């Protein structure tokens, strides 16, 4: 097992242990009586998250968002939720499986990103790179936003399907980089492959000089890839708040899905301007879709089952496998079974 992998697993286990020790700590915006009216969360530089869009559209009702900083990777985001530093966080479903398997009391409640024909994560190289197939990556550096999450899982799936042995796959060096720095690192040849997604990918492509090796959409088709989680104790104390959050995010997904792209981009640009975080708003001009497969962010069992099977095959799940139904719930989502918000 590589040092980065061991470090990640130690971090997940530590997060779970701290959660069990802190118990009821970290109540966030809980009022002395009644439901929480404020949710602490981490954002993304130069981008608008679905909860932020939902809040701006008035879809969260009386629930307010309290931004506590930015995060570059999903595992860190859900660890912050598990340890009570934030009230909700989002990550790749495989990372959520690992944290849940480490006995962290968290539950996924709504999908928030995925891959489709318009929005996907791709593996990009410079135009003159010799890399074209899985075997060409042996001994090469691949830059991605975080280790142990979506980008790594998809990459290793592609490598395995390409016939590489586990020993050969270990020879592909994974490098964690903030998403906003990945393109520059590729162009400066500090890495051989950059994993780029969403608006960051489209901006890089518009700059020319890079080409696609493979995308997660080409490999796996359309799917929701990540979900927002809450701590179980928070859900128990604040079911109506969680329902308001899930409903609002679901409505924001459908609003963005049905509006002209220019309308969504203008709204996101306005949100960035109003929040005053000294950010470059140019990324949102490349927004195309959330990539969420299910209507209103409804979660399917396969979206967790796929990664449970993959992690088990990789030897990263010890003991009995968790079941998808142990990790997520759609009970707060009004769009389940064809419903409407």
Report the CATH topology name of the largest domain: D-Maltodextrin-Binding Protein, domain 2
Global Rg: 19 Å
Please write the string of helix (H) and strand (E) elements: HEHEHEHEEEHHEHEHEHEHHHHH
**Mean pLDDT over the residues:** 89
Number of DSSP strands?
Answer: 10
Structural class: alpha/beta
Tell me, briefly, the overall form: globular
Q: How many helical elements? A: 14
The CATH architecture of the largest domain would be 3-Layer(aba) Sandwich
- Looking at this structure, what is the CATH superfamily of the largest domain? Periplasmic binding protein-like II
Q: Helix proportion of residues, in percent? A: 40-55%
**Assembly of the depicted chains:** single chain
The number of distinct structural domains comes to: 2
Cα separation of the termini: 46 Å
CATH class of the largest domain: Alpha Beta
Looking across the biggest beta sheet, what order are the strands in? 7-6-8-5-9
Query: Which range does the strand content fall in?
Result: 15-25%
């Amino acid at each position: 097992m590589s040092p980065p992998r061991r470090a990640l697993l130690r971090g997940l286990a530590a997060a779970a242990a701290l959660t069990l020790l802190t118990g009821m700590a970290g109540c966030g915006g809980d009022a002395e009586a009644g439901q929480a009216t404020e949710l602490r969360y981490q954002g993304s530089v130069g981008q608008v998250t679905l909860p932020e869009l939902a809040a701006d559209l008035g879809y969260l009702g009386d629930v307010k968002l309290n931004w506590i900083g930015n995060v570059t990777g999903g595992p860190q985001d859900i660890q912050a939720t598990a340890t009570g530093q934030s009230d909700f966080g989002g990550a790749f479903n495989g990372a959520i499986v690992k944290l849940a398997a480490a006995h962290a009391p968290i539950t996924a409640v709504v999908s928030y990103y995925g891959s489709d024909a318009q929005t996907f994560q791709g593996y990009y190289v410079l135009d003159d790179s010799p890399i074209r197939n899985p075997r060409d990556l042996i001994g090469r550096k691949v830059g991605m936003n975080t280790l142990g999450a979506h980008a790594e899982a998809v990459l290793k799936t592609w490598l395995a399907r390409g016939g590489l042995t586990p020993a050969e796959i270990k020879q592909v060096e994974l490098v964690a980089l903030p998403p906003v720095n990945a393109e520059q690192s590729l162009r400066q040849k500090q890495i051989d492959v950059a994993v780029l997604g969403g608006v960051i990918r489209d901006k890089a492509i518009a700059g020319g000089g890079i080409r696609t090796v493979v995308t997660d959409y080409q490999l796996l088709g359309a799917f929701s890839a990540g979900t927002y989680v809450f701590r179980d104790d928070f859900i128990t104390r604040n079911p109506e708040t969680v329902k308001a959050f899930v409903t609002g995010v679901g409505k924001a997904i459908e609003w963005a899905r049905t509006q002209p792209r220019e309308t969504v981009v203008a709204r996101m640009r306005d949100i960035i301007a109003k929040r005053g975080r000294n950010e470059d708003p140019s990324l949102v001009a490349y927004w195309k879709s959330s990539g969420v497969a299910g209507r209103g962010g409804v979660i399917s069992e396969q979206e967790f089952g796929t990664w449970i099977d993959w992690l088990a095959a990789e030897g990263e799940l010890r003991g009995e496998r968790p079941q998808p139904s142990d990790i997520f719930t759609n009970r707060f989502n009004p769009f389940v079974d064809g419903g409407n918000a």
